[in-house]
Amino acid sequence: MAKGLVDFMEECPSRMDLYNILAPRSRTIYMNKHHEELGGSIESILRLAKNSIEQQRQPVEFLLPSSGKVPVSLKFPEYGLYSAVAAQPSNKVAIMLNLLRAIQEAVYSGQIKTIRDVYYSNVQLYGKQSKVDQWITTIARCFELNSKNPLNVIPAQKGLCFTTKEIRIVTRGRMDCIPAYSSTLIPHMEERSMCQVIMSKPMLRVIVVEKEAIYNKLINSGNGKLLQDSIIVTGKGYPDFLTRLFLNKLQCIPCIESWEIYTDADPHGMDIASKYMLNKIDHYKCGKLVHKGVFLSQLIAQRQRQIQFLPLTERDNSLAVRLLEKATDTDCKHSRLAIELQRQIFLQKKAEMDGLERSGYVGQ
């Protein structure tokens, strides 16, 4: 005869013991390599989850490896004491399974998908495009991949490059060219890609600007002296992975002597500069870049022009304080970031680089 609630209550001395004995037993699924092939590992995980939920009606618990000793646990469906606030974990599981299915299709078909394509395939589920990228990184770590390229889901092209010398990028035997004297989207590349600049003398200058509008002004200025032997790059605001990876690869080219980056004189401009210069991931960091402006002191000095200074918001101040802690290190090269952030916090002002003449922030 099956036990009733009264029997369980007599066996359990506390409420928590009763809760534990009545809780359904879930199936544990480890998010790691089940097979040598990536597609086989994904298929095993999806099949285990499907059989448990659909056929056996049994909850599942996904265990994801983490940097600590304890793996991250994701349960679906949530039940018990905290089930009323379990919408977020359930959403995470849905995103993970949906991405695994998309990756499996891409791997088996051999097609390359962009993060943007995956995001727009189910905007309501993902919410933000950054979530897709974060989960792609998590999945790559779960399968112990050195890079995200084997997943066949890559970042969409965003950054622009103008160069006066032809640049060749070799990836897996395929060569992409950025032609001279033309504005081009930075091509897809990988961590193992190789960059080569076709030129006769070692006198190149890299100029990175925050805004696409400033980028267009520079390349359309007709200033031969400014454009001569220059590579001008913009990430259109906060830079994507391809733009940062491209600059990282250019660091290996000895003929580039000058590295400059220009942003708005506000905490977000400093944050964008730090994304290029201080990234934790080596492949996405360009340590040779030096922040050259625009600085508040440059804008204040332009007395003949009407510069519009705006007050820092509470959000700006919070960001500035966090960045100041990040930029205050032993590397004197990044002291400009710290000094500019201190100046903005002290004056409680910010401004855009558009208010300064081009010759004022790009030295010629």
From TrEMBL:
GO molecular function: ATP binding; DNA binding; DNA topoisomerase type II (double strand cut, ATP-hydrolyzing) activity; metal ion binding
Annotated catalysed reactions: ATP-dependent breakage, passage and rejoining of double-stranded DNA
Gene3D superfamilies: 3.40.1360.10, Winged helix-like DNA-binding domain superfamily/Winged helix DNA-binding domain
Any single GO CC term annotated in Swiss-Prot or TrEMBL for this entry: nuclear chromosome
Pfam (any one): TOP6A-Spo11_Toprim
Coiled-coil regions listed in the entry: none
Domain Spo11/DNA topoisomerase VI subunit A N-terminal positions: 92-153
Residues in Topoisomerase 6 subunit A/Spo11 TOPRIM domain copies: 206-359
EC number: 5.6.2.2
Record-level GO BP terms: meiotic DNA double-strand break formation; meiotic DNA double-strand break processing; reciprocal meiotic recombination
PROSITE patterns cross-referenced by the UniProt entry: TOPO_IIB
Active site (record annotation): 120
Enzyme class: isomerase
Keywords: DNA-binding, Isomerase, Magnesium, Metal-binding, Topoisomerase
Record-stated family: Belongs to the TOP6A family.
Protein name: DNA topoisomerase (ATP-hydrolyzing)
